[in-house]
């Protein structure tokens, strides 16, 4: 298969972890006789530094033309701490999601047997957890009208959803549940928010088309507690943009490190793959950033194109790395000197030679 992949490494540790994902995809291409090409573009703070804007047209065009996009991370503390900044790195990512209509963000949360002790949560609660979060990505409060009064003392962000926006992701989440444990949980705040009541109404209506799926509902405040006190109850979670952002980051506690969580952002015509972690700028260029979330995002890219054997091989490589403690320091495992690129090298070697790869 020929795939033209746009690579937007972004800021902070983005370039380091993305390099390992590209390394792994190149190994897969070699092993399975695919032709993957990689074209790089700027986004975020690095684009602002060079071009004054967070998503230059060249990067957007690159992504529009590509079969898939591999994205790193975005953000810089100097913007986080400056409420007056009008141009911000995150605007680049939000614009990209909107322009490409990447409305469904899929975030798997899978507890690895070998890492159960890395989580601050008790083993018995997290063993065998396998949740898939469907987060709406192009609507809600992130994209509603924003206003600041002239004197700067009032501000508002509107949270708005349409039936159409809810239906299209809900269908995807129901279908995912059908192929998993047939359970879908909608997380909302329908006791308070009109937009949440619309979600509940629309999702309830669609449920009749998926009689094999059990649908239940949780308010976000309750869900925030349940996701770490009883995560095994969940199969597929469906939720709106901001609740999904927060609940998925919370769920990473189950897995032991946010450096392990991958995601796919899917629309009707484009698809982007990115780790859910941020830029972790204090780790930049130290070789300590965990590349596994980026590598697992590359596996999701392979799945997206039906390259299931290829994706499985990447995941087997990740499993073996975790089993042999070939991991970065965030996982506090046996060795303290395994760098970002060493993890990538190991998985690359595994792909080239699955039966013989060991730590050397
Ligand atoms: C994420 C990030 C983004 C979001 C930021 C960087 C805009 O936190 O992908 O989860 O809030 O969606």
TrEMBL record:
<protein>
    <recommendedName>
        <fullName>3-isopropylmalate dehydrogenase</fullName>
        <ecNumber>1.1.1.85</ecNumber>
    </recommendedName>
</protein>
<dbReference type="GO" id="GO:0046872">
    <property type="term" value="F:metal ion binding"/>
</dbReference>
<comment type="subunit">
    <text>Homodimer.</text>
</comment>
<dbReference type="GO" id="GO:0003862">
    <property type="term" value="F:3-isopropylmalate dehydrogenase activity"/>
</dbReference>
<keyword id="KW-0520">NAD</keyword>
<dbReference type="GO" id="GO:0005829">
    <property type="term" value="C:cytosol"/>
</dbReference>
<keyword id="KW-0028">Amino-acid biosynthesis</keyword>
<feature type="domain" description="Isopropylmalate dehydrogenase-like">
    <location>
        <begin position="4"/>
        <end position="347"/>
    </location>
</feature>
<keyword id="KW-0560">Oxidoreductase</keyword>
<keyword id="KW-0464">Manganese</keyword>
<keyword id="KW-0432">Leucine biosynthesis</keyword>
<keyword id="KW-0100">Branched-chain amino acid biosynthesis</keyword>
<dbReference type="GO" id="GO:0009098">
    <property type="term" value="P:L-leucine biosynthetic process"/>
</dbReference>
<keyword id="KW-0479">Metal-binding</keyword>
<keyword id="KW-0460">Magnesium</keyword>
<dbReference type="InterPro" id="IPR004429">
    <property type="entry name" value="Isopropylmalate_DH"/>
</dbReference>
<dbReference type="InterPro" id="IPR024084">
    <property type="entry name" value="IsoPropMal-DH-like_dom"/>
</dbReference>
<dbReference type="Pfam" id="PF00180">
    <property type="entry name" value="Iso_dh"/>
</dbReference>
<comment type="similarity">
    <text>Belongs to the isocitrate and isopropylmalate dehydrogenases family. LeuB type 1 subfamily.</text>
</comment>
């Amino acid at each position: 298969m020929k795939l033209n992949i746009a690579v937007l490494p972004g800021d902070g540790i983005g370039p380091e972890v993305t390099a390992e994902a590209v390394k792994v995809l190149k190994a897969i291409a070699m092993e399975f006789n695919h032709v993957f090409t990689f074209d790089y573009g700027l986004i975020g703070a690095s684009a602002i530094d060079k071009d004054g804007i967070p998503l230059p047209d060249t990067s957007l065009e690159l992504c529009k033309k590509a079969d898939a996009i591999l994205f790193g991370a975005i953000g810089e503390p100097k913007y986080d701490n400056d409420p007056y900044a009008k141009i911000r790195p995150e605007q680049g990512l939000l614009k990209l999601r909107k322009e490409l209509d990447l409305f469904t963000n899929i975030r798997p949360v899978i507890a690895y047997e070998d890492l159960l002790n890395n989580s601050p949560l008790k083993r018995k609660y997290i063993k065998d957890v396998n949740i898939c979060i469907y987060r709406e990505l192009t609507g809600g409060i992130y994209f509603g009208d924003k206003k600041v009064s002239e004197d700067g003392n009032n501000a508002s962000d509107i949270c708005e959803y349409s039936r159409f926006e809810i239906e299209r992701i809900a269908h995807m989440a129901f279908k995912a549940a059908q192929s998993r444990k047939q359970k879908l949980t909608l997380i909302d705040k329908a006791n308070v928010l009109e937009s949440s009541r619309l979600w509940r109404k629309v999702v309830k209506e669609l449920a009749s088309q998926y009689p094999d799926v059990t649908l239940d509902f949780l308010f976000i405040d309750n869900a925030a507690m349940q996701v770490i006190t009883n995560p095994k109850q969940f199969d597929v979670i469906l939720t709106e943009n901001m609740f999904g952002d927060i609940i998925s980051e919370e769920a990473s506690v189950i897995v032991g490190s946010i450096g392990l969580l991958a995601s796919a952002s899917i629309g009707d015509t484009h698809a982007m793959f990115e780790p859910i972690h941020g830029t972790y700028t204090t780790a930049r260029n130290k070789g300590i950033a965990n590349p596994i979330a980026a590598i697992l995002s590359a596996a999701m890219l392979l799945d997206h194109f039906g390259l299931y054997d290829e994706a499985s091989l990447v995941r087997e490589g990740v499993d073996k790395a975790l089993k042999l403690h070939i991991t970065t320091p965030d996982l506090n495992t046996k060795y303290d000197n395994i760098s970002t690129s060493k993890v990538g090298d190991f998985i690359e070697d595994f792909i080239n030679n699955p039966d013989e790869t060991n730590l050397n």
